[in-house]
Each structure stands twice: as structure tokens, then as C-alpha cells.
Amino acid sequence: MNIVVLTGAGISAESGLATFRDLGGIWSQVNLEEVATPEAFAADPERVQSFYNARRAQLHEVEPNAAHHALVRLEREWRKGSFLLVTQNVDDLHDRAGSQALLHMHGELRRVRCLACGTDDRWEGPVTSESACPSCRTQGRLRPHVVWFGETPLHMEQIEAALEGCDLFIAIGTSAQVWPAAGFVRMLPRRAWGIEINPERSAMASSFAEGRRGPATRELPLLVEELLA
Ligand code: OAD
């Protein structure tokens, strides 16, 4: 039984990171057109960098929670087939928890891409107009590694192949309002079982065979226990 897991901002909520679309979420405080599009970056790179610099700095204040750890346990102990974790999250909580088969389809806060040489590199602190690319040393051409609206998500070929061979799909903490991730549940083979873990019904709730309505830190360890029993 091959498992594909999709996570969204809700899995990191109980670690203290705000989601995007819940009450008081990031997109109710900041206009996404001003920080999350290529046009915004072209118009005001400093504004965009400072938004992501603040979010990158926030990663030092949070830790993975029981839901991130439950997915690591599932990956390590699952013997009945393959396991792949696809995350829309740009935080590094899955990485720090110890997930290995992990694809960040919307990029990573702790990486930058150089617009001069195209290389991706790890990046810890703030990015400024003086920052030089670790690979080619060009100054002032680094952009956040985050995928913006209007850009193509990363690793799509690998994700689509995993969905084709998937028997159990588990979506956790995503409102299913951003495509293509929202449509993954509809790309599953007929035999596959879909479980949504979310205190609320997402926009795709009716496409899942099962909905577990509760916080990820409660529902996910329980589900993992059941799967491994
Ligand atoms: P959203 O903010 O749209 O949705 C968060 C979901 O998490 C909601 O459906 C909540 O009900 C649910 N939720 C809240 N607390 C939870 C908890 N404790 N346990 C489980 N679920 C909980 O976030 P995403 O769906 O991840 O794009 O948003 C998708 C993309 O939109 C993001 O990756 C980001 C954003 O614009 C980029 O950064 C490119």
C-alpha cells in the first residue's frame, strides 16, 4: 500500500506559525499581490525580501510538533509499500523533525535562488541588496526560493508519478484553495482511499473518502498508530 501525504500550513499551526487563510492568517494581514508574485518582486524587491526575511527569522522560534513527528514515525516504520511526503509549506519543520522522502513543492524559506547563475543555496539570515550569491558571488541578485503565484510548483513530475501509484492519500491542514495541490485528491487511481485531516472541511472535502475533524497533533498520531498496528 503506497502512501502519499500532502501537508499545508495547518500542520505547522500548533507549532506557532500562522496559516494563510484562517481568521487572522497571513493573507488577512498582508496583501498577497504585494509579496507573493514575480510582479511584486520586480516592483519592490526590498518589501518582498523583508516579508520573507521576517518569516525566515521566525523559524528560529518554533519547533516541530507531534504531527510532524508522527509522519517521521510513519515513514520509518511503514513496511507495506512506499511513502512520500509532499508539503506546500516553506517552513523547515518536516526537515527538522527528520522526514527524508520529502518534497517542498512551494520551495523553502531557508534557501535562496540566484537570478544571475540560477543556483539554489541554503540561506540562514536576512537577504539584502548587498547579499552575494554563495555560488557565483554576484551581489544583489538573490530571490527567495519560495514559489510565487503565477510560477510553476517544484517536483511536479515526481509528485504526479507518486499519485498515479498511490493507494492511500492523506491531506493534512490545507484549505485546498491553491492549485495544483488542491487537485491532487482528484488525480488518484480509483482504488485509492483519501483521508483529510482538518478541523474544518476544506474546499475539496467531498472528494475524500474520509474526513477526520480535529487538530493535526491529535488526529495524525492516532491515524499513524492505526496504520502501523
Ligand atoms: P491555508 O491557510 O489556506 O489553510 C490552512 C488549513 O489548515 C485550513 O483549512 C485550516 O482549517 C487548517 N488548520 C488550521 N489549524 C489546523 C490544525 N491545528 N490541524 C490541522 N489543520 C488545521 O494554508 P494552505 O492550504 O497550506 O503558498 O495554503 C496553500 C498555499 O497558499 C501555501 O503553500 C502558500 C499560500 O499562499 C505559497 O507560499 C506559494
Describe the 3D structure.
- This protein is α/β, with parallel strands linked by helices and 229 residues long.
- Helices cover 31% and strands 16% of the residues.
- The chain has nine helices and nine strands.
- It has helices at 10-13, 26-29, 32-35, 38-43, 45-58, 66-77, 93-97, 156-164, 216-228, and strands spanning 3-7, 83-87, 102-104, 111-114, 120-122, 142-144, 168-172, 193-197, 210-212.
- The protein has a six-stranded parallel β-sheet with strand order 3-2-1-7-8-9, with helices on both faces.
- A hairpin with a 5-residue loop joins strand 4 and strand 5.
- Helix 6 packs parallel to helix 9 (216-228).
- The longest helix is centred in the first third of the chain and has 14 residues, at 45-58.
- The model has no long low-confidence stretch (mean pLDDT 97).
- It binds 2'-O-acetyl adenosine-5-diphosphoribose.
- Residues 8-10, 13-14, 19-22, 25, 88, 90, 106, 146-147, 173-175, 177-178, 197-200, 202, 215-216 line the site of 2'-O-acetyl adenosine-5-diphosphoribose (OAD).
Task: Give descriptors for this structure.
229 residues; alpha/beta; six-stranded parallel β-sheet; 9 helices; 31% helix; globular; binds 2'-O-acetyl adenosine-5-diphosphoribose
Enumerate how many helices there are, as a single number: 9
Order of helices and strands: EHHHHHHEHEEEEHEEEH
Largest sheet descriptor: 6 strands, parallel
The amount of helix comes to 25-40%
Which distinct ligands sit in these coordinates?
2'-O-acetyl adenosine-5-diphosphoribose
* Average pLDDT, all residues: 97
Spatial order of strands in the largest sheet: 3-2-1-7-8-9
In percent terms, what proportion of residues is strand? 15-25%
- Sum up the overall morphology in one term: globular
| Secondary structure tally: strands | 9
Secondary-structure content class: alpha/beta
Round the Cα radius of gyration to an integer and report it. 18 Å
